[in-house]
Specification:
Blueprint lengths: L30 E6 L18 H16 L9 E6 L7 H15 L5 E6 L6 H10 L3 E7 L3 H7 L5 H14 L3 E8 L6 H14 L3 E6 L7 H8 L6 H17 L3 E4 L2 E3 L6 H7 L4 E4 L4 E4 L2 E5 L3 H9 L5 E6 L2 H14 L4 E2 H7 L11 H7 L12 E2 L3 H5 L1
Parallel strand pairs: 1-2, 1-9, 2-3, 3-4, 4-5, 5-6
Antiparallel strand pairs: 6-8, 7-8, 10-11, 11-12, 13-14
Helix pairs in contact: 1-2, 1-10, 2-3, 6-8
Length: about 400
């Protein structure tokens, strides 16, 4: 099943072009991930680190970002930036400009792509203008569903009219690429509901669509509410939703390139491609994770603890583990097989000459015989999952 959801050189003020593409195996990096932990309210299904914004917290966060960015050596800059959260689009126009400017001055602008996550409820023309002027090229809008009763079931703080208002403003602003997030297997959602959501999203015409299966996290309001109602996830129902998406979206002009992600030609998310190919990325901000300087690390998920570390001259990271070649290979295979193009064996051999020694007891042959991997004739030079393998 789909896992839970969890993304050229520009002169100042200019934006990289959309449509940059390449093989899914390409390491585009390094990338920069910025975690903006602020949300006006927590959605009932979400367990990501988030806090309510106020002026004191915002100033402490922005000053902390300046300090943390100054502690990192990245003189070559970054190919991609991805701002996630939380709700980065919640930042006021002035705060967004302050953060974007300090990162541009520290690292230079991203060479290929700059993605910012937002929600319909916080989109304004002033925020969009500042993003566009700073060089943001790609927006990712958390829609989830177009249906009022399902938005209410998720605890989303907006209604469909906010989606259409935000969409008109975003397209008017002229961003090079726009993604919409949708979710299936929601409480009370029928298969026909899901088909209508996909069709409505495609009618608006985004460049990219992300479709995620709802994952119930134990420490969320939605989980507790459904538990009290005696309701449990139904894997067979989730499978029916998932199977419906690829053919329908292909007819609407979107090709699946990863288990949960679809795009029109030239609009795949480069930041995510680099991450899935196990290129380096730096994580800044409380709760941000990264793969940087030969290790995996995650910042503490607490604004005050994160700032305390920075005030003492250290990045407040947890789980700082050396990145052993075997672990990197494992993740290249896992995330490579999530992509519909699969894994390029020549590239895998170049990066990991020892990889065939991991084929314990003919693992790949057994996967082929089980119908989960394409045959060598169907996918020459690649390890690529079948549709049943992607489902698994």
């Amino acid at each position: 099943m789909p896992i839970r959801w969890q993304t050229k050189t520009s002169s100042p003020g200019s934006a990289p072009k959309a449509g940059v593409s390449g093989p899914d195996d390409t390491v585009f990096g390094p990338g920069l991930y910025v975690h903006v932990p602020f949300c006006a309210r927590a959605c009932d299904f979400c367990n990501f680190y988030q806090i309510a914004p106020d002026r004191r917290r915002m100033d402490r966060y922005l000053e902390g970002m300046r300090r943390e960015a100054g502690m990192v050596e990245a003189s070559a800059g970054f190919a991609t930036w991805f701002w996630g959260g939380g709700t980065p689009g919640l930042l006021s126009a002035g705060d967004f400009e302050r953060l974007g400017t300090l990162l541009r001055e520290r690292f230079g602008p991203p060479r290929l792509e700059w993605t910012v996550e937002t929600t319909p409820a916080v989109v304004t023309r002033e925020r969009l203008r500042v993003m566009k002027d700073l060089g943001v090229t790609r927006l990712s809008i958390g829609v989830q569903t177009f249906q009022p009763r399902l938005l209410e079931a998720l605890g989303r703080p907006f209604r469909p009219d906010a989606i259409y208002r935000a969409w008109d403003q975003v397209r008017e602003a002229g961003f090079a690429s726009v993604n919409l997030d949708l979710m299936f297997a929601l409480p009370g959602q029928s298969l026909e509901d899901w088909k209508r959501d996909l069709a409505e999203a495609a009618r608006l015409g985004p460049d990219h669509l992300s479709t995620y299966c709802l994952t119930l996290e134990e420490d969320t309001a939605l989980y507790l509410r459904l538990l009290q109602q005696g309701r449990r996830p139904d894997p067979e129902e989730e499978i029916r939703f998932y199977r419906e998406s690829p053919a329908l979206l292909a007819d609407l002009g979107y090709q699946r390139y990863e288990i949960s992600n679809y795009a029109r030609p030239g609009f795949r998310c480069l930041h995510n491609l680099n991450t899935w190919a196990m290129g380096d990325w730096l994580g800044l901000g409380p709760a941000a994770a990264g793969q940087w300087a030969g290790r995996r690390e995650r910042n503490v998920a607490d604004l005050e603890a994160w700032r305390t570390g920075l005030d003492g001259g250290e990045r407040a990271t947890e789980d700082r583990d050396p990145l052993a070649p075997g672990r990197l290979l494992q993740d290249c295979l896992i995330f490579g097989l999530r992509r519909t193009d699969g894994v390029d064996l020549a590239e895998l051999e170049r990066r990991f000459p020892f990889w065939r020694a991991t084929d314990h007891d003919g693992l790949w042959q057994r996967l082929r015989e089980g119908g989960w991997l394409e045959s060598e004739a169907a996918a020459p030079g690649r390890l690529r999952l079948t549709s049943e393998g992607l489902l698994l």
